[in-house]
Design a protein that fits this description.
- It is a single chain.
- With 232 residues, the chain is α/β, with parallel strands linked by helices.
- It is built from 9 helices and 10 strands.
- A 6-stranded mixed sheet has the order 6-7-8-3-9-10, with helices on both faces. The protein has a 4-stranded antiparallel sheet with strand order 2-1-4-5, covered by helices on one side.
- Helix 6 packs parallel to helix 7.
- It binds adenosine-5'-triphosphate.
- The site of adenosine-5'-triphosphate (ATP) has 12 residues, from strand 2 and helix 1.
- It comes from Iamia majanohamensis.
- Keywords: Amino-acid transport, ATP-binding, Cell membrane, Membrane, Nucleotide-binding, Transmembrane, Transmembrane helix, Transport.
- One of its GO terms (biological process) is L-amino acid transport.
Length: 232
Amino acid sequence: TDGDRALELHRVRAGYGDVEVLHGVSLAVDEGEVVAVLGANGAGKSTLCAAAAGLVAVTEGEVRLGGVDVTDLPTHRRARQGLVLAPEARGIFPGLTVEDNLTIRLRSGAARQAAKDRFPILGERAHQVAGLLSGGEQQQLALAVALPDPPAVFLADEPTLGLAPLATRTVMEGLAELRDLGTAVVLVEEQAAAGLELADRVALVELGRIGWEGPPAELDLDRLTASYLGED
Ligand code: ATP
């Protein structure tokens, strides 16, 4: 039933001012599932995440968390219900240093050390302000604090942006672990290959609509290519 979906977007229309970007997007993610949201630059992937988190206004349709309609709830209330958009919404405190972020979210020194061992950049950048880290670095911080206390929903918007292959692998492994802990994971990727590897299901966003949805094994390359080229 609908109540079982960790996150559900139902015919969501959203955008910026008079410009509608999402033209009726429906997407559901279950507990312990990774859905990769793929699509061309500007297709609306980030807007989809922002609409789920309440960072852009939904003009029509519904957003549900665990079956509960949260369409009219502000971002912090959705966060309290277990929705994290990394790093913008409950992912990190951008005005605090990396160390302070770790201290606030991870109680024991051992947990903080484990986070730094797993994501070495967090040790190297301990005294920098989190909001000034690169996108991929902020994603690592958001993951590090989410893993010991897995949220119901974790939306990762381009989590590997600008990361070297080793850090990319670490992030993908972190997302897989979150999934295994029961979190519903939405992985937004412009690089299709990375997203496909981890995904249980794929959603192709095309000009503000879900153009195709299904398991990665059923996604044919022509379909994917057309989606990225904006052909239908
Ligand atoms: P990208 O990977 O480039 O972020 P995307 O698929 O995530 O692509 P969105 O960022 O959701 O796409 O952008 C979708 C459309 O919304 C684009 O046309 C973009 O110009 C527009 N847009 C995004 N953010 C804003 C904003 N804050 N104000 C106005 N328009 C915006």
